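Structure tokens
________________
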Amino acid sequence: MRKHWLVFSQIVAAVVLVLAAVAGLGWLFPGLMPNGTKISIREIAQTGQAQRAAGTYAEAAKRALPSVVNIFTSKEVRLPRSPFMDDPMFQRFFGFRPESQAQRVTNLGSGVIVSDQGYILTNQHVVEAADEIQVTLADGRSLPAKVVGTDPETDLAVLKVQQAGLPAITFAKPDSLQVGDVVLAIGNPFGVGQAVTMGIVSALGRSHLGINTFESFIQTDAAINPGNSGGALIDISGNLVGINSAIYSRSGGNMGIGFAIPVSIARQIMEQIITTGGVTRGWIGIEVQDITPEVAESFALPSTQGALIAGVLRGGPADRAGIRPGDVLVKVNGKAVTDSTTLLGLIAALSPGQTANLEIQRRQQPLQLRVQAEKRPLMRRQAQE
């Protein structure tokens, strides 16, 4: 009996080993699956590569990096003189009136090559008042640059270097960006050299920040620090979606809130500057403000839509057209005005000499007026049109 039991045990053990071996073949050779599905080792390798590639933005960075440059500027400033130098007693003993000393101040920033003919887009504050500008390309070459034109009201500037065949960046399609999209910021933070940071689009159309006159910023949490100004904000395909411009910071460093000028605005300004050397906007001579719920209640307005006329320049286009303080401007050439920022954009889009149809509300009564726009004078950071 014991002999038979030993034989039975050996047979059971052998069967278990055989079943285990067959199961192991399924793992060792994926092409032999119990359900008949065939997966090759090559397919498994390709799947792994695809999964790894999904976590990298190396191709986007590789495509855009050659188009981003470092900008170094310098200017001469006069140091304030000591009040003792104007003292008659001081002059009596020293016998001369020393002039104030001059000192060169340097600044750094970034820029984006937008044309193979040497045009570079950057922030106006990067090159403001500079008397010497040097551009360093990604390949290490250093070239002198000249300012073609600036637009302080959007904080944009165009530079030119005498070098053809430069690697120009590709512009993304206007309005292609969405909240939640992954973006990369490329620039020269703190002068350490070209660097890439990654984040997402936190918000679009940010305004009323007091940074520029015309604001419609992309907000991102991609790290933007001093030196990144004027650099590129790109999408995961390496296309330019914005020009890094400003940060919100209490310490001077990145706090996860950065702002970039959208490519739709940057490209429009860039083309005007290259073509004419500057930017021309319409103006009608009014001061406006947003309609808050409190203002709407005070003026007995049905909603907060539109822009309240807070002031009218005497003798200006709006004054001649019959616009009065207290009017609410609701449409310009049939386009709705939602707030003061929208109105600034609609008026600025008018060409000097162009006549615009304005729809206003005066004492809750609709009124149609026509106004002839003039050329907008330079008024930085003012809600005046």
Notes: The first strand starts at residue 68 and ends at 78. The chain has four domains: 2-55, 62-160, 182-276, 282-375. The chain has a mean pLDDT of 81. The radius of gyration is 32 Å.
